[in-house]
Design a protein that fits this description.
The chain has about 525 residues and is of the alpha+beta class. The chain contains 20 helices and 17 strands. Helix 2 (about 40-50) packs across helix 3 (about 50-55), helix 5 packs antiparallel against helix 6 and helix 8 runs antiparallel to helix 9.
Length: about 525
């Protein structure tokens, strides 16, 4: 039989730390008037710290009167005492420390090679000081970037910045960001910010790196010498900007005046792209867009789609919810490519699971179709009435058209031999062979652009919709949807759709004409 007395050992080691009996190490922590002499034991230090282990084993430590001497002017006595207490008895208390002090502590612990404490401090910062991390992105990034062992904190900071890059790009200290960090951020596919704002930020950063360029001068009217300087400063960043995802209007107003910063082949491609509207349909094939990593288990859609679903479910025309305050969890129940395309596979996974959202990806396009069942699926061959269900069509990754049920008795059809079926005329459904079809409008008002007949689908998914618990739900507020929602046209009804489409067509024509005129005049000057 064996016995363990861990707590007793810890208590005795803490006594040793306090009494300093038999110490053979002297540490001078701090500098000037804030210097303090601390005492410790070499055998304990070398066991718990890689730094001290190396120093003692290689005889690197200074020795005087039989005692090892260490000088640590970069570490305050208070912080070193905290570290020593952890080394001796595994205890640490962050309560009295401010976040900047904890970051300093983390850097010191990394230097001393105390791995368990490195992980502990990172976890504490992420859990208890997330707000500080977001309010001071530059300082945090640069501190963490210098230490490879801060991987947990590094990934967390990058994730937060990519979710809301404005905390970085709107910071007054953004212009002080190191070149290597800026390059790393611009390479990321999940830097979720409009490309024109990224371009504006890069220009602002570039000007700040060159004191000879006036900060008050209109950036689009730089002198020839300034353009040469900026071209040298920004040359490695230009390929990282997703220019093809900048609107024609912004390209004309904010990019083209600085065309000399761009390589000729890139500029030529962009001009052709903005003049020929047919090229814009395959923009994602030309250059991959930035998009946030999806918080949900989907291979078809992104975070913003789920935020839109929440708005539609709650019938919020004002787009109350975004990717951060979504009040619903969406749990994947079924994926056709994984679970099988048969009605049996669908019903076995999705029956009697409550409200669900169905999402299907149309082949060879960015279009998404689907519907929301506010009740539940089952195999009863019974029909159900509801005003809350809807079907939808995403004409591309951003713009959607939506149609709510008219409330008739066929709003939701639970047909055992079919997959999900919406509407009395089978307005949108997956048939017994796993083929998606639409027979037109019956229970749901017509959606312009929704194909009749067979709809070729790559894959489809079904998500269970569950309202979050109060303790995990974020307080919902009406906030400005400036992350991307301002570009998302959520259209309900034909009249509104036609009106918006006509306005968009006129705007595109005006922009194209303006751009063409500018380019024509430019070429005329060169002749």
């Amino acid at each position: 039989m064996s016995y363990e007395y861990y707590q007793e050992v810890i208590i005795d080691l803490e006594k040793l730390f306090t009494t300093e009996i038999g110490y053979d190490v002297i540490i001078f922590a701090g500098e000037n008037k804030n210097t303090e002499e601390l005492h410790a034991h070499s055998n304990i230090l070398s066991t718990r710290s890689q730094y001290f282990c190396t120093a003692f084993s290689n005889e690197l430590a200074e020795k005087k009167n039989g005692k090892f001497i260490f000088k640590k002017p970069n570490v305050s006595p208070e912080l070193f005492k905290i570290i020593l207490r952890f080394i001796y008895c595994g205890k640490i208390d962050f309560i009295k420390l401010q976040c900047p002090e904890i970051l300093k502590l983390l850097a010191i612990v990394d230097e001393l090679g105390i791995q368990s404490l490195i992980s502990c401090i990172q976890e504490y910062l992420i859990k208890h000081h997330d707000e500080f991390l977001q309010q001071n992105p530059i300082e945090i990034l640069e501190t963490v970037y210098q230490h490879e062992s801060f991987e947990q904190l590094w990934n967390h900071c990058l994730e937060k910045i990519c979710e809301d890059p404005r905390i970085l790009f709107n910071s007054e200290k953004f212009i002080n960001l190191k070149s290597s960090l800026l390059e790393l951020l611009l390479k990321r596919d999940d830097l979720y910010l409009e490309e024109i704002i990224i371009w504006d930020g890069l220009l602002k950063w570039g000007v700040a790196q060159n004191p000879s360029i006036s900060k008050d001068e209109d950036i689009t009217k730089l002198k020839k010498d300034d353009i040469t300087i900026m071209k040298k400063t920004l040359h490695k960043f230009i390929p990282l900007i997703r220019f093809y995802h900048i609107s024609s209007e912004d390209f004309l107003d904010k990019v083209y005046p600085l065309k000399d910063l761009l390589p000729e082949d890139l500029l030529d491609g962009l001009l052709k792209f903005h003049i020929a509207s047919s090229r814009k349909s395959n923009v994602n094939d030309i250059q991959r867009p930035r998009k946030l990593k999806c918080n949900y288990d989907s291979i078809l859609i992104e975070n913003q789609h789920f935020a839109n679903f929440a708005n539609w479910i709650d019938k919020k025309d004002s787009l109350l919810y975004n990717i951060k305050n979504n009040p619903y969890n969406f749990n994947l129940l079924y994926r056709a490519s994984r679970d099988g395309y048969t009605p049996e596979a669908f019903h076995s996974k999705c029956d009697n699971k409550g409200a669900t959202i169905v999402v299907a990806k149309i082949s060879d396009s960015d279009q998404i179709i689907g519907g929301y069942n506010s009740l539940q699926w089952d195999s009863s061959d019974q029909n159900r009435s509801t005003f809350d269900s809807f079907i939808f069509l995403y004409t591309d990754r951003k713009n959607a058209k939506l149609s709510y049920s008219n409330g008739d008795q066929f709003s939701i059809r639970n047909i055992a031999l079919n997959g999900p079926t919406f509407g009395g005329g089978n307005d949108l459904y997956c048939d017994s062979n796993g083929t998606w079809r639409s027979n037109g409008s019956c229970s749901y008002p017509k959606i312009d652009g929704m194909r009749k007949g067979i709809i070729n689908v790559n894959d489809y998914e079904v998500f269970q919709v569950i309202l979050k618990r109060k303790d995990e739900n974020i307080q919902v507020q009406k906030i400005n949807q400036d992350l991307n929602l301002k570009n998302n046209n959520i259209i309900v009804g034909k009249t509104k759709s036609d009106k918006i489409k006509n306005n968009e067509d006129k705007l595109v024509k005006r922009r194209s004409f303006k751009l063409f005129k500018t380019l024509f005049n430019e070429k005329k000057k060169q002749q």
